[in-house]
Design goal:
The protein has 295 residues and is an alpha/beta fold. The chain has 2 domains: 6-164, NAD(P)-binding Rossmann-like Domain (Rossmann fold); 169-289, N-(1-d-carboxylethyl)-l-norvaline Dehydrogenase, domain 2, CATH 1.10.1040. The chain contains 14 helices and 9 strands. The strands form 2 sheets. The chain has a 6-stranded parallel β-sheet with strand order 3-2-1-4-5-6, with helices on both faces. Helix 3 (54-60) crosses helix 4 (71-84), helix 4 (71-84) packs parallel to helix 5 and helix 9 crosses helix 13 (257-272).
Length: 295
């Protein structure tokens, strides 16, 4: 008789809600928890088991994935795991948070006999649905190796980056490029549209040449259509991540002038389109350019 593969998941939002079905398709019994009842109900409807609490969840699984919105949620999760008093568990922390918060969680869990891996993800919510994610893993190498099949169930690639915290540092580097490339793609599309070119044709042609980028591929179609729903990444999340990366760079005394230049565009986007995907920076630049579609 085969042993049932079980994995826990705390956080069933945009990322967690996309990861869970892929793990199920890979043969895992996924048991989840979220503080939002609507998210719990949505995941239960597609076959995810729902735990009544984090304590109940950690009692059922050896490996727990966490996809959390902020450091307070991580602290709450850590305290709940420690209070459960279970034998050693591996916690795969996939959120984008400050390195210091990840290390503090690692230290606290280690004192309770558990292993925390710092494993932020590169990719949008839309990419998560198609398993187009990359795992930046760091921490205990043996534990990372033991999670290889789980990573393969929801991501296209994973990397062991060494010491705890290196995963988050790599994510900051990747996200710096994402933030800049997202605005750059929008700027290029607005230039082309104002010159009379078809926006979807711009995406289709430019993405195949030297000017292509993953952001042009992933968010270019939304920019071309002018439809910024569904939200694969929202402005509030970007503000959090921009703040983390900006502070990280400042602490290292490392200039990030292009990141700084993109910040006003994101602030304008969040002000004008608070519930839209961050590809709506294209609409901000259209307004700045005096561009009216079809005009």
């Amino acid at each position: 008789m085969s042993v049932e593969k079980k994995v826990g998941l705390v956080g069933l939002g945009i990322m967690g809600g996309a990861i869970a079905p892929n793990l199920m398709a890979a043969g895992y019994h996924v048991i989840g928890f979220d503080v939002d009842p609507a998210r719990r109900d949505a995941m239960a409807a597609v076959g995810v088991g729902i735990a009544a609490s984090i304590g109940d969840l950690v009692a059922e699984v050896d490996t727990l994935l966490t996809s959390l919105p902020h450091e307070g949620a991580l602290d709450t999760t850590v305290r709940a795991i420690l209070a459960a008093g279970t034998p050693r568990r591996t916690i795969v922390e996939m959120s984008t948070l400050k390195v210091d918060a990840k290390i503090a969680a690692h230290t606290a869990l280690a004192a309770g006999g558990h292993i925390l891996l710092d494993c932020p993800l590169s990719g949008t919510g839309a990419q998560a649905r198609t398993r187009d994610l990359t795992v930046y893993a760091s921490g205990d190498s043996a534990a990372i190796a033991a999670c290889a099949d789980i990573f393969a169930g929801f991501a296209k690639a994973s990397f062991d980056l060494g010491a705890i915290g290196n995963g988050s540092k790599m994510k900051y580097v990747a996200n710096l490029l994402v933030f800049i490339h997202n605005v750059a793609a929008a700027e290029a599309l607005v230039l082309g549209m104002k010159a009379g070119l078809d926006p979807q044709q711009i995406v289709d042609v430019v993405k195949l040449g030297a000017g292509g980028s993953r952001m042009l591929e992933v968010r270019g179609p939304m920019m071309a259509s002018g439809n910024y729903k569904p939200v694969t990444a929202g402005f509030p999340m970007y503000y959090k991540d921009l703040g983390i990366i900006g502070q990280f760079a400042m602490d290292l005394d490392c200039p990030t002038p292009l990141l700084s230049a993109s910040l006003p565009i994101y602030l304008a986007g969040g002000g004008s389109y608070p519930d839209a995907d961050v590809s709506a920076v294209c609409a901000v630049l259209e307004t700045m350019a005096g561009l009216t579609r079809g005009g």
